[in-house]
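A quick aside before the break. I want you to see a complete sequence-to-structure record at least once, exactly as it would be stored in a machine-readable document. Don't worry about memorizing anything.
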Amino acid sequence: MNRQSKAILLTSVAVSLIGLRLSPTEAYLSPPAAIAGAEVATKALNEGRTGDAIAPLRAALLQNPDALSLNLLAGVTALQCGDYRTAQTAFERASLAAPEEALSKYGEGLAQLAQGKMASAKVLFERARKLDPDRKELQEAENYLHWLEGTEWTGESMQNTASPLQRLTQGLDAANRNGTKAAYTTLTGLYNEGIDSGINSGIKATGIALTPMTVLAVRSVASMLPKPQNEAGAIKGYVQITAEDVNGYSYVGFEIDGQSLGLVSSNPYTMNWNTRNVSNGVHELSIVFYDSSGNESRRTQKTLRVRNSGIKETLSENLKETLWKTLTLSPDPGTLAFAIGNAERKAGKNAEAQRWYWTVLARNPQSLSARKALVQTGGLLSPKTPLYAGRPGEKLVALTFDDGPKPGMTEALLDFLAREKIPATFFVIGRHVDANPELTRKIAIAGMEMANHSYTHRNLTRLSGAELAGEMAKTQAAIIKATGKAPVWMRPPGGNWNNAVAQTVKQWGLTPCFWTVDVYGSEVLGTQQVAEQTLSQVKPGSIVLMHNGKMSTLQALPTILKELKRRGYHFVTVSELNARLQAAPSSERTAILVQHTGKKRRGE
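That is the input. The structure line, written in tokens, reads:
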């Protein structure tokens, strides 16, 4: 692999995110508001909620903009969001706070590497090496950089068992040499190890997706870092605090951040404060006035900003080790999936390649490279006209079941449909599919059609563009992984629909499918009500919306099927109903669209 080709893979790694904790030492050195912000941010990072760390980190940095630990946390957060420039700035600020700290140089080097600046990254890694020559994490990063430059992977840690990162480079090299079998074995092994260790779980160890693939956009978190504050108004060294308007009071107390500096009972009511005993940053001064009985009568508060030169924050060994581990390079699951897809594609296995490309898109719907590869392998379908109903002149009915799969209910429903030889369409929820892949597979094996019903079953009209893309891509990936086949149809939960949802559904190659009969209101009443509503509303070409998980529906089905068969109806999947509709004259199809488009549906 030449240097130009490897340049594409500059960021084909992840930074594993493990537990972060602030030690009592760091807490003591920071103002209370900064401590609170840091605690909220680290909790969010621990739980994989990276976006939720941004606001509290900004609040903490406003209180203590020079804090080493806070800027390091901000750098980690920015890397996690793919905003490498902001990450670079945060690590640069950490370096200013503690020039002798190798961790800051290393973090900045990672940010430079993620931007494709190999020369700058190399210099920063070398500076970090001089400050802390024995870090294995740093050796891994340097060796990875050597590989990108075309030199050999070296180092004591590599002599016995190859590290995951080294195995990644071996797999990528094998794929480049057309050694698809060797590449597949190495890369899938790494991917499965990541699943076993939790790296791919999205919880606790989310990984920082520094993928080599072109992405549409990254999440900018530059607002997380407040602008450097003006020195004017800052205090330093020893300062004298004087209480005013003391008449009528017997004692005056002075507090900094809720901690007592002392109590004064005579004129002049002043207190000397050595500001070097606290961290640089914003602190709260409270002057408390007491009466002769010692009861608090009045309190005044003021915010002060401390800026002493020569005061450096130090990291506890515990926090330092945690941050080094947090910034350890490891194979990125998205990169692995993309590389495995490419290996499968080279081997002529397009269907398998598509499954891996969908895996990439489930993690990062913005990946243009994976999307392009999916199109090239025929894995992204062309959406059709929205389906509302079938032909009014044919006694066909499409039964559809939303919200599954649901263990304990889906099995009985499948048994009944199979016994009666009734095909149906299951609009499944992606997270239920991920939780029940075997049951999902049974639905497909039984001959039922699988369709997309979003990943979390939220109101899609209230989601951002990125969230909408995730709802579509993650569900597609889950169904394909379980059944090997991509769904064609998509039904929005509750029928909630707008232009943004319509565009997103179309972009993911899906066709919306609505309904003509909705028994949701009857399902919560009872079996008889479900049967009566269905039989009273079904017409030729009807699409019936039922739910996979309602006992009332399951018990009503025998009555419904028996009566509809007596009336001469036949049961088909949504796709078959649509195929018969597409065979109809265009005037008939247009009339159906005009009749149903714009109708208000449940949830709208």
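Two observations worth writing down. Confidence is low (pLDDT under 50) at residues 1-13, 15-29, 156-160, 198-218. DSSP finds 25 helices and 16 strands in the chain. We'll return to this after the break.
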